[in-house]
Design goal:
The protein is an alpha+beta fold. 23% of the residues lie in helices and 40% in strands. It has one domain: Nuclear Transport Factor 2, Chain: A, CATH 3.10.450.50. It has four helices and six strands; from the N terminus they run ααβαβαββββ. This is Polyketide cyclase. Residues 9-112 form the SnoaL-like domain.
């Protein structure tokens, strides 16, 4: 096992591989992506959307995470496609075998109805990944957090959105 830092390209490959296997319902590969001590959190950005119960989870331990993801996938349509975009590393904790790489990305999900693909979900994912997994890349999630967008989009300026001052202006 390499103790070198996880590169952005390794991380991108691991995350793309995970979502491919999730979409294709390859349950063994989904399970291999999680460390025994993994944490999984999913919810909407508001925490109170009409289908919050279907997407909300706060789980610890690979067995609980894998069980929930398996049931969630079985209840979802096929084909289903998860796209991870704008992946970037936000930090690294520790070094050597114990190093954990933190990253963030947008997630976009589409499905097909009447022969036409259309978007069904989007959000922000935060992950923590370390070496040592049973995946082809040798990486594993220690944390996967998915916060799905359900709040209606509004103009940023003067909208009173969290984190945006009322006098905020978009920059070019």
């Amino acid at each position: 096992m390499s103790t070198a830092a996880i590169s952005l390209s390794e991380l991108q490959n691991f995350i793309a591989d995970f979502w491919f296997h999730y979409d294709e319902a390859h349950y063994a590969e989904i399970g291999a992506a999680f460390a025994e001590d993994a944490v999984y959190l999913s919810r909407s950005d508001s925490g109170s959307c009409p289908f919050e119960e279907a997407l909300s989870a706060d789980l610890s331990g690979a067995d609980a995470v894998i069980s929930w993801l398996t049931e969630h996938r079985k209840a979802s349509p096929y084909p289903l496609r998860h796209h991870a975009t704008n992946l970037h590393i936000t930090g690294v904790d520790g070094d050597g075998d114990d190093a954990v790489t933190h990253a963030r990305f947008y997630i976009y999900v589409n499905q097909v109805t009447n022969f036409v693909p259309f978007g069904v979900s989007s959000g922000v994912a935060n992950v923590a990944v370390r070496r040592g997994g049973n995946t082809p890349s040798g990486l594993q999630f220690t944390r996967l957090e998915v916060i799905l967008d359900v709040t209606n989009s509004e103009p940023l300026e003067g909208a009173g959105l969290p984190g945006a001052p009322d006098d905020a202006t978009a920059s070019a």
